[in-house]
Write a structure and sequence with these properties.
Blueprint: H1 14-39, E1 44-48, E2 54-58, H2 62-71, H3 81-90, H4 111-130
Antiparallel strand pairs: 1-2
Organism: Chelonoidis abingdonii (Abingdon island giant tortoise)
Region (Disordered): 93-112
GO molecular function: DNA-binding transcription factor activity, RNA polymerase II-specific; histone deacetylase binding; protein dimerization activity; RNA polymerase II cis-regulatory region sequence-specific DNA binding
Length: 141
Amino acid sequence: MGRKKIQIQRITDERNRQVTFTKRKFGLMKKAYELSVLCDCEIALIIFNHSNKLFQYASTDMDKVLLKYTEYNEPHESRTNADIIETLRKKGFNGCDSPEPDGDDSIDQSPLMEDKYRKASEDLDILFKRYGVSTAVTGSQ
């Protein structure tokens, strides 16, 4: 059983938007962590929410990665939302449909896979807590 595609557009309901932000922020940090470990690369992730609250993740030291970024003089890949939308259109996605399954819907998984996923998530939570990365939802700003 597959997951349904969702429309990529602003969520109007404040509570749903906050829940989605929290879940997807954690998912993004988890993917950044996985990419840094699997591909041995440095990653710095900076997020400002709608009320200008800062969230950050760095695979190493954030200041060192940002210094490396500001001193980098070679041509490099740089993307915006418009670039991503254009790339998705060229690949046949209908602009607003998500090319990836939505993480909020459940799919059938074997108990072994569910256990491995749960264990990996717990390990990642421990790592985030150890390095002071905030993944908790706080009250209204």
